[in-house]
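Lecture 7 notes. Example A: sequence first, then its structure tokens.
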Amino acid sequence: MPQEIKITDEQIRLSEDILLPASRHFDNERLDFIKDLGTFDLHAVPGSGKTTALLAKLLALEQHLPFEDGSGILVLSHTNAAVDEIRNKIGSLCPRLFNCPSFVGTIQSFTDLFLTIPYYKIVYRKRPVRIDDDIYQEHHHVDYGFQKWLDNRPGDGKKLLHDYRLRDGDQLTFRRTTDAFPFGKKTKSFQTILALKKKLREEGFICYDDAYILAMEYLDKFPRMINIINKRFKYVFVDEMQDMDAYQYALLEVLFCQARDVGYQRIGDKNQSIYSNDDALQAIWEERSVKEFNGSHRLQPLVAAMVEPLAINPIPIKAQKTNVDGSPININPILFVYDNDTIEEVIPSFAREIKKLADSRLIDTQTEHTFKAIAWTTQKDGDDRNIFCLNHYHPDFSREQQKLQINYPCLESYLHYFTPGTNKLASIRKSLLNGLLRVLRIEGISHPHTGRTFSKRSFLDYLKIEHPESEPRFKLFVFKCSKMVAEGQIPQALRFFSRGIEASLQKFGTTIKHSRGFMTTSHEGKAPVLDTSPSATTVNQYIQDGIVIDVATVHSIKGQTHTCTLYMESFYQANVGKKGQYESTRIADQLKGIAIDEKTHKYIKQSLKMAYVGFSRPTHLLAFAIHRSRYDSHYAGTDMVKKWDVRVVHKK
């Protein structure tokens, strides 16, 4: 490299002042990571502060931007939330990091901006209209006869239409794989779908799969782009690497694996890869030089002892969490044993244990608390009621309420508040649908069959089933309105949207009665407000004696830190024979200290990853809920039980 850059102790001290609590310093593990600008992988245990250490490195490097050769820094993560965290914490201090030639964003936004869009412009002489799965699927229009043929194919009609992708001009493969279309090229089904995919591509409607297919095609046909990108970015940091899918991993390898003059650092924890859709990623992520963060500022020793055996990729955890005064935390994990008729008493029992800790001052009441009860799976329509999931512990649980509920002061506000960026049109669409649902709630309109308020999904499903002739027109209406908003035509979009809402109300045999003021009030920059209605704040909460416990899925709490966490076993539909379908059965051997091997079933590994993520959230109390039958079969009388305080749940 023409310019040798070193991160100094003075720069690190400045980063500590910005990022760490008073009088706290980075330890040797983190100092080694921050100062090393070469190519390596960082594996970090839960609560290790890996993102904070990355931010310290970025703060130091930003002082050198742009580098002597005109290059910059590339920082990638899997989600917009992770990118926003980086921007919110250091954006005001690092303006050059967030401007050309550097780039901070998601893997999707990077792929779109640097590869997919440029290549599309070369091939089609224009920009794509939209890169978005929802908009792409909405434009799958075929004639009546072919649609009827698809509908008569049980199970795979929708798959044939939506899930095959255009590749190499005249090939159809399943999503991002090389699996060919199941019927020959001369069949009507192949020709019809091929023509549709070509039409969508030419019109500029691209799904996320297409984005990566086109990106790899670009690099294959124009390999010099790899060198150009390597010269653009001197240092590449990929945070939350474990959440990348295999195709994203492959793209990054093509771009940066062989780059001699690029520091390429992949940061993550393989044991927490619950978002990856590709089971093979575990084997695909080939390690190079590896550093580890073993120290966890979140976990106390008794919790760390439960978490460490669950790791698919063994890594020692050094528990460093203490009380505020520096004293050790010695709260034993709790095993709740329930029966069929006491499952709804599990969360109340957990609340009583938290109250005991608070009364005994084992939880510092001067600090903020977070109490969570979590499970992997939730109840779905048609599920066997004898198969336990999250809704059996907390029957009122709603997936829709997992996200922060925000009410806007008027309908027009829904045309102003949306997330800008790569998914702008999709974000506008979601905001418009939320506005429509708000009108339905104000008018007191609920689902005629379930009696529940509509969600976006249940409303669209209702239209599809009860008013199939209206569903395509409604989707087109939402798309047109979204496009008007994206183009800044707010007054026209509001009038168009209001007329569409009136038409939707007619489907329920009513007109605007109670929402007239909401629909006609001017936006005028009014700020959004949190929905504090009882239905919004309590449907996914259990409250007892002042203890508020949030009820959530494991996926929704990844990355969070809790004071106390209850992990409730749940049924996973895959059939794995003698190992069963509940985590408590699948991970029993590991909780007893038996390591996995190469023959360990993939569903056991999935359960281990879920439990690893869930068990590693709490700073103080970890609890695990197990049915009596599985407790008796796998845990009763074993040495493993001695590590837990066992509580039998009784009916109150």
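Example B, a different protein, same format:
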Amino acid sequence: MTSYTLRKGSPAKTRSDAVVVGVVKAGKGLTVAAGAEEVGEAWGRKLRPLLSSLGFKGSVGEVAKVPSSGVVSSPLVVFVGLGDEKDLSPDVVRRAAGGVVRAVPNAATLAIALPADSLPLLSAVTEGAVLGGYTFTQFKAQTAPTTPGVGEVIVLSPLARQDEASRAFEQAQQLADAVNTTRDWVNLPPNELDPERFVELVTEQHKAATKGRGAPKVGIEVWDVERLTEDGCGGILGVGQGSDSPPRLVKLTWDPADATRHVALVGKGITYDSGGYTIKPAGSMATMKSDMAGAATVVQTLFHVARLGLPVKVTAWAPLAENMVSGTAVRPGDVLTIRGGTTVEISNTDAEGRLVLADALVLATEDEPDEVIDVATLTGHMVVALGDRIAGVLGSDELVADVRTAAETAGESVWPMPIPAEMSERIRGSKIADIAQHDWVRWGGGLYAAAFLREFTAGLPWAHIDIAGPSFNSGGPSGHVPNGGTGCTVATLVAHLTSRAGTATEAESATDD
């Protein structure tokens, strides 16, 4: 288990196994970044020729490890590129910190002297270090060698002795822990995480998070099949009826006394998606354990917000089902009735996410929140449009803009997509039901799905975040993002809710005046 320490000190004199030094492109050459000036002074004029001999270009995330030979106190210096000095940002620093922690896996102590002379930069270094050190080894054989990892990470910052810096350092670790827990859940194999086990994990975390004096009060409710039936949740029941693992719905509530705003979060929780009778190709099933990433995201976001004590009410809804093939599975041509009475004709059983979200959205709107945000690994169309590292965001213009702003603050990538008027016509194409779940038109499928979801938002401010691309990384690790579950969007939602809490606090202050 890695420990993290915030310290004020000289990177040239720090006695750690390795020290991390940022390198930026400035003018016509390379120079050390802010925070590591003393290391640059120790090498003097020999630094640039050294980096040149290594072929080091200073590109963002580029790493070079060099024995210090006594030039500085640490025996190993790890140079990491930060790109152009004028483009330095918390996002760049976060990525760099994540990469270097992974590049020095066997250090007992690792001192990081990246730019950390402001609270955003300090938070970014800390988040990057915690996120970059993530590994998922739960199912590795006990006889295998222990997975290497840094024993202690020391973040060097001139702000280290300030109370605000200590709080930022602690909260950055907590946020990264929430992201890493999301990754853990997404990485669990489907035979270890069906809807019932998901509920158990939420319940266990709820018990731990609310235990003890001063712990936040978080409400929890669970819908079983009987209650889902009583409440008319035909979408969740229909998707889950083909599996031996019955569907569930979880609601978490953070409702502080000083809250003046209510945000509802809804996350898609398909614990495994075979596609149903519209079965997926074999290769496409390999990562379908990750189809519950949206549910994991909203659950971890709520627990983190409660831990922070943000003065904003948050409800998190996680509709859970397993989409399987059996004699009881829903069929193309079936008609399901969503809570509230809307009937939906099924054409594609592999477009199941919108069905479970529909029930949860209706329930969420019945609480009359100020706004609703859903997060879902919803459509391959969005991956085709935006690639596998950018999430699409659709919905009410003002809320979409606010989500984009939050994503920029969090260092995550989202891009706005439209819901054209003709999509409303397309979803009403069924001849036997109120709306059609799918229409097999190849073009604009992600936009169609968003138009479908909008039908269940009761006209409230609403944003839909399609994370089908960035929620799971099938390639190699990059920066602070590992292979497998990425935990994307937790940081964006936390940034958005922090902004909403700040707005509420400002409004309260204005009223007091």
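Note on Example B: Residues 290 and 394 are 22 Å apart (CA to CA). The first helix runs from residue 37 to 43.
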